[in-house]
Amino acid sequence: MLMKAGVVRGVNDIRYEDIEKPVPKKGEVLIKVKATGICGSDIPRVLNGAVHNFPIVLGHEFSGIIDELGEGVQGLTVGKRATAVPLVPCFECEDCQKGNFSLCKHYSFIGSRVNGAFAEYVCVPARNVVEFDDSVSFELGAMFEPSTVALHGVYLNDYRGGKDVAVLGYGTIGYFTAQWAKILGARSVTVFDISDERLALAKESGADHCINTLKEGFQEEAMALTGGRGFSYIFETAGNEVTEKLSFALASNKAHICFIGTPTKSVTFTREQMELINRKEFILTGSWMSYSAPFPGEEWKMTAEYFGNGILKLKDSLIYKQYPLKDIKQAFAEYETPGKVKGKILIRSGD
Predict the structure, then answer these.
(1) What are 272-308's pLDDT values in tens digits?
(2) pTM listed for this prediction
(3) Is the distance from CB of 72 to CB of 283 less than 8 angstroms?
(4) Of the candidates 207, 152, 211, 153, which has an alpha carbon nearest to the alpha carbon of residue 183?
(5) Could you give the C-alpha distances from 222 to 53, 209, 269, in angstroms and in order?
(6) Largest CB tally within 10 Å, which of 149, 155, 205, 237?
(7) Which residues of 4-19 are buried (b: 16+ CB within 10 A; e: fewer)?
């Protein structure tokens, strides 16, 4: 049988076409896809051909309905709403044995190394499936992966409530990082961005303070919010040289700084900037993906619970546009103009 999919055939060549509908093997689950987010990592894969192989169906931030269970699958229900963990670790290497699945060197990845969810159906390992409540929309279900990326960064930093938190960059990951920091008991959350529109969304979503870094004197304003001490936790989510350097300046003594954003260019720090590591004795941590033991981890369990109880929210304005699967080429064309897309684009299937 055939199904429709958005297939990357070459550089900036994604086509809506028929491909073979996957059939779940032993231990696999077939999901009928409803919504899939375009991740920042998908953009160079399509526009610049930065894929592992052609042809490939991308898409790893998705939700849908369990359609069919492969042989031996138990504990899951046909007809239930679900998302799936895109990482498929080997479970055998030293890192996997320690529960550090994000660091597995022998992994596969749904929507990158194997076909993903820019399609009507996708097959995934049963242990990767995360069911969620019927009250959770498919749009929200497609946000599981970015939410877990944010929460993973928070967990890696010995996070404790009652402290001042800074979130640098307010894209999708920054949006969820700020929410998790607040949910887990931050004394205050301050969001930094260059867009007044995004800062307005941050304020609407519960941030205590919002600061535009293009504004003269913004750094003094920020430090004043903490009584001059600086921020105890800083989460850099943009992968940008400016915000990476800013995190050092805003850090309090003994702070935790986490780089969640993935850099796209080389970064050079001055001697004075690097000396702040010594003088402030802060801890600098990198964060990669969103998994912990037992697989897939507390990040996914917490996201399902807090989406389900409505405490973790999705504002409509975070979604820039929604396109039907047949218009997937047009959706990616939006990214050809830098800075045009303000928020997340979702691809809808089967509506």
Answers:
(1) 999 999 999 999 999 999 999 999 999 999 999 999 9
(2) 0.94
(3) no
(4) 207
(5) 46, 9, 22
(6) 237
(7) bbbbbeeeeebebeeb
